[in-house]
């Protein structure tokens, strides 16, 4: 069975490139896109799209969780750095849908000097 995925910031170049790349394989995934910018979302290559609140909105993670359950999705894939941070903060609410390292590892990876020193 093909994977069912949620791409954040759908409609931007990284998410569209990732969607096209993933569809070249034998088992093409079902991709759902989400973005807080309805105009960017119109450019999305996802199979289905949702307008969501901005990442700093208090209900952002609840909306993502609702989309994951409604669409029976397997995994959230952040396509921009800001979403990685937001998803990491929402880890308790989205736990089973995320495959991210711990927040402390993400902090080190965002600081080139600390990463190289490590």
Mean pLDDT: 90
SSE run:
EHEHEHEHHHH
- Terminal Cα span: 40 Å
Biggest sheet character: 4 strands, parallel
Q: How much of the residues is beta strand, in percent?
A: 15-25%
Segments where pLDDT lies below 50 for 5+ residues? none
Which structural class do you get from the secondary structure elements? alpha/beta
Rounded to an integer in angstroms, the radius of gyration calculated over CA atoms is 15 Å
- Helix share bin: 40-55%
Q: Give the strand tally.
A: 4
* Number of alpha- plus pi-helical segments: 7
Strand order of the largest sheet: 3-2-1-4
How would you concisely characterize the structure shown here?
The protein has helices at 13-22, 38-41, 60-70, 81-89, 91-94, 103-109, 112-117, and strands at 4-8, 30-35, 48-51, 75-77. By secondary structure, it is of the alpha/beta class. It has a four-stranded parallel β-sheet.
Walk me through what this model shows:
Helix content is 43%, strand content 15%. The longest helix is centred in the middle third of the chain and has 11 residues, at 60-70. It has a four-stranded parallel sheet with strand order 3-2-1-4. The chain has 118 residues and is of the alpha/beta class. It has helices spanning 13-22, 38-41, 60-70, 81-89, 91-94, 103-109, 112-117; strands at 4-8, 30-35, 48-51, 75-77.
């Amino acid at each position: 069975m093909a994977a069912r995925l949620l791409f954040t910031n759908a409609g931007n170049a990284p998410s569209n490139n990732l969607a096209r790349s993933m569809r070249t394989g034998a088992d093409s995934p079902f991709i759902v896109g989400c973005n807080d910018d309805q105009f960017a979302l119109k450019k999305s290559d996802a199979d289905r799209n949702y307008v969501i609140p901005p990442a700093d909105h208090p209900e952002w993670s609840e909306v993502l969780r609702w989309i994951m359950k409604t669409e029976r999705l397997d995994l959230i894939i952040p396509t921009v750095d800001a979403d990685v941070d937001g998803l990491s903060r929402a880890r308790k609410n989205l736990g089973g849908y995320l495959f991210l390292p711990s927040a402390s590892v993400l902090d080190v990876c965002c600081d080139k000097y600390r990463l190289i020193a490590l």
